[in-house]
Amino acid sequence: MLRDASSVVVFSGAGVSAESGLATFRSGGNALWNDPEVSTYPTPRGYRAHVPRSWQWYAMRAQTAADAAPNPGHVAIAEIERRVPDFLLVTQNVDGLHHRAGSRRVVELHGNLRETRCFDCDAKSAWPAQPADPLCARCGGLLRPDVVFFEENLPADTLESARDAAERCDVFVSVGTSNLVWPARELPDVAQSAGAHVFIVNVDMTGQMPPGDRVVHLTGTAGDVLPRMVARAWPAPT
Ligand code: OAD
Questions:
Q1: CATH number for the domain whose boundaries are 28-67+113-147
Q2: Which of 26, 47, 71, 152 is the most exposed place for a label (fewest CB within 10 A)?
Q3: 28-37, 49-58, 125-134, 168-177: range with lowest mean pLDDT
Q4: Whose CA is nearest to atom 11 of ligand 1?
């Protein structure tokens, strides 16, 4: 199906970066939201209430992501993009590893950790070398990471292009997401309702749409299952 598809969407979450050593939000003993204080950071009010610790926590995550390397799961997704005429990667991840693995047609639904943004004047800038002082160089306002917080809207154009692609695709591959966060979580349903075949790659199928006629569960890690999917779809010439 992957080989014959003319339009493919890959939809990724934190699980695809787990094998690069990055903690997920809700799975495993080191899940980020396990810490009760940290779990309050991703709202405008929670972030402001805990500055400078919230700022330093995001700076640390930006550094951890920059230090991590893409794994075979990221590489396989970039390979699918090269093989399929109409492709979109819709990621909830902010770690930038998909880009570093070679993915180009990417929608980052929840923003990214590459830059900071000012709460007041909205100016974007690089992370300061010494991330001690979270103040905007332009207006003195409070800096934050360039990610989407809970209680904030996703940029309308990114959500719209993700929905359009989900409606259009023949094959929709969901990888490493708990599928809990709205509005991203509606995308597999959008694709399935529009007639796509849905493949779900995850180590744990809790909360995923049940297997069925056009829904296939591939239980395993992204770094194992995705390269095997690619190798089966496009075998190397012998
Ligand atoms: P979660 O932490 O909620 O879910 C991670 C998923 O990855 C779980 O379903 C795991 O079973 C699965 N998983 C773990 N290791 C895996 C592996 N090696 N291979 C395949 N699957 C694996 O992360 P997300 O679904 O990405 O939003 O979370 C969605 C959003 O919630 C995030 O973007 C973030 C968070 O709050 C914001 O910050 C706005």
A1: 3.30.1600.10
A2: 152
A3: 125-134
A4: 204
